[in-house]
Amino acid sequence: MAKTNNNILTILGIDIEPGASKEASFDVAKLHTSSSVNVPVIIERSKKPGPTVLFTAGIHGDEVNGVEIVRQLIAKGINKPKCGTIICIPVINIFGFINLKREFPDGRDLNRSFPGSAEGSLASRVAHKLIHEIVPYVDYIIDFHTGGSGRFNAPQLRIVKDDKPLNDLAKVFGAPFVLYSKNLNKSFRNTCYKLGKPLLLFEGGKSFHIDPIVTNYGVNGSKRILHHLGMLNSKFKVSAPKKDCVYVDESRWQRAHLSGMFKASIKIGANVKKGDVIGNITDPYGKLNYFVKAESSGYIINVNESPIVYQGDALFHITTKLKF
């Protein structure tokens, strides 16, 4: 259990004094080979008091771009605060990461296992440990995700609507899009929301892929948040967002009307008009060439990059209602 005593922070059995750099181990279970699994938790404390910020990634084991963002925060020293404490957990679902799988070995989705149970499934135990031994002692959380199943997400934040503190933080972060979405039951975001812990969920890129543009958005947004909180070391520069943020009230998936070989012809983040050609579906024999046209006007915030699609598969995620 994490605790504080005489300004000493104790997390996962490790004492972290002001000004200290420590690495704790987020171990829950061994592999089936009896090999230990060390999940490093990197903790950096300033001598000056201040907020505690938690950066997490890898809740889904195949979402490596989020892992890369947190890795860069550590490798570049961005996680060494001018005041307060920064905790980084680059890979929460180490079991999925080892096996290159989204879920845990038993098929459970960690992001549908919160708040977890100390006596439950492996995923439930990991969720329980995170919620009870780390989350109570942080003030802000930034959780990094990517799109799944070959679908590439435009860099975006997902938050609930009409939450002023989260909206203020999202504005500071400066992602190209903010998507208002409800908290999903048993998710990490929903559990932190109930605990009163502000969490920004960043989505960008796709599974099994590291994209430098998405990575830069994640790293730069994190620096802006730390700068806003007075925690960013003065040696790091903070850049303004490249463009104004688009706030999305509603969006919809456009699905394939035919099965075949698919290729998008529009860039992620583009603003399209209803009727614009945004991709095409062909067959392997050169007989079919079906042009996919936008069914509504809006921004493209997700593109299916799978070369093969079936009728009904999601092709594009298009905004339908914006907040200005």
TrEMBL record:
InterPro entries referenced in this protein's UniProt entry, alphabetically: AstE_AspA_cat, N-alpha-Ac-DABA-like, N-alpha-Ac-DABA_deacetylase
UniProt keyword Cell membrane, yes or no: no
Record key words, sorted: Hydrolase, Metal-binding, Zinc
All copies of domain Succinylglutamate desuccinylase/Aspartoacylase catalytic, residue ranges: 49-228
Cofactors that this protein relies on: Zn(2+)
Gene Ontology molecular function, alphabetical: hydrolase activity, acting on carbon-nitrogen (but not peptide) bonds, in linear amides; hydrolase activity, acting on ester bonds; metal ion binding
Pfam family, one: AstE_AspA_cat
Protein's recorded name: Succinylglutamate desuccinylase/aspartoacylase family protein
Species of provenance: Snuella sedimenti
